[in-house]
Amino acid sequence: MNHIKLLFFATIRDRAGTKSMEMDIPADMTILQLKGKLGADYPNLKESMKSVLITINREYAFDEAVVPLNAEIALFPPVSGG
Amino acid sequence: MQPSNLPTIYSITESEIDLNDLLARITLTSTGAAAIFTGMVRGVTSRGDAHETEYLEYESYIPMAESKMKQVADEIRAKWPVVEGIAIVQRIGKLYPKTPTVLIACTAAHRDTGVFDAARYGIDRLKEIVPVWKKEVGPDGQEWVEGDYVPKPGE
């Protein structure tokens, strides 16, 4: 198993109802599989998983990436700073 | 001077943006020009979907945001090696109309060195890859503003 930390921002945080959570996932889980799991476990997040941006350890990550051990994963909408 | 010795400031802050202080910190004895972009909260919007804004509430994934601001500064230096100092500052929290929210400043020896383009690139890139979001609060309620840029691998 892999123990990871999830961070949520902006609309994703509102829908998740929390800023962060910790979770155990299988060791070889990809970002695509993680999105599937989050959408299934938290129905409020299902729709958001289609357009969410995801980072692994503070770098943008994509569907095929395998989640590294003890990763810090963040989920958020396209950025709107400035 | 090597890029590593040139002043580069990047930060997310809840404090007022102090232009004079930032400018002093990115001015070298060889500097003769600074291009500064600052954005502020617009209280009345008339372009597109006309509306009024009471305030904006900004939040950030701070450690990643500061690392992406450094990346933007590195990209500026790669494209415009003549740039001397760079300051990139994003203010977060609850910010009211007329308040400066972001500042990008680049300095160089002369104004015709590309320094205007460098500052322009800085704000454009910040709005693409630096993880900051704002919630807009107005007379008709509140709404998260979402960007439309999807970063590519390596960004």
Compact overview of the structure:
The complex is a heterodimer of chains A (82) and B (155). In chain A, strands 2-1-5-3-4 form a 5-stranded mixed beta sheet. The relative contact order of chain A is 0.29.
Would you mind describing this structure in some detail?
The complex is a heterodimer of chains A (82) and B (155). Chain A is α+β, with helices and mostly antiparallel strands and 82 residues long. Chain A is built from 3 helices and 5 strands, in the order E-H-E-H-H-E-E-E. In chain A, 27% of the residues lie in helices and 30% in strands. Chain A is globular, with a radius of gyration of 12 Å. The N and C termini of chain A lie far apart (39 Å). Chain B is an alpha+beta fold. Chain B has one domain (3-140): Aldehyde Oxidoreductase, domain 3, CATH 3.90.1170. Chain B has helices at 19-25, 62-79, 115-129; strands spanning 8-13, 33-40, 44-45, 51-52, 55-60, 86-91, 93-95, 100-108, 132-138, 141-145. In chain B, the strands form 3 sheets. Chain B has a 4-stranded mixed beta sheet with strand order 1-6-8-2, with helices on both faces. In chain B, strands 7-5-9-10 form a 4-stranded antiparallel beta sheet, with no helix packed on it. A two-stranded antiparallel ribbon of chain B has the order 3-4. In chain B, strand 9 and strand 10 form a beta hairpin. The longest helix of chain B has 18 residues, at 62-79. The interface between A and B is medium-sized, with 18 and 34 residues.
